[in-house]
Amino acid sequence: MYTKEFEIRWSDVDANRHLRNSTYIDFMSHTRMSFFLERGFGQVQLAKMNLGPVALNEHMYYFKEVFPGKPIRVSLQLKGISEDGMFFEFLHNFYDSKGCNVARSEMMGAWIDLKERRLTGLPMDFFKYLEGLDKTDDFKMLTKEDTRRFGQFPINYSPVL
Question: Model-level pTM?
Fold first, then answer.
């Protein structure tokens, strides 16, 4: 299983002196990009392909507080992907220095064509960069319907002037 270790910095904590919510998101994002960078895929390749990743949702589950002074380790597993690679879902677990699972997150995302500003599938040669990434026990092939499973849709607001 791929993991990335992080030092908890002063700027990573909130007023309660434990790891702040947004730091978990930052650590997950850095873990994902580190995985790809170690396999030779980074910003240069994204720019050539005119692609950008977008988060559709992130569900966090906190089990235990995390404080500065000891490192935290973040895992990465593939929970699902669509046939064309447009949609993907990752599972991240957070572990303290003793291996205790302190938090978990399921993150679903998609790829966007940065010129067209539309969701797009991945070139087939991209899939080689996913090789070596462990799949979760409940891994599945994703469909567009999976991205809507929480029943959330925009509700517009009409300001009164």
Answer: 0.92
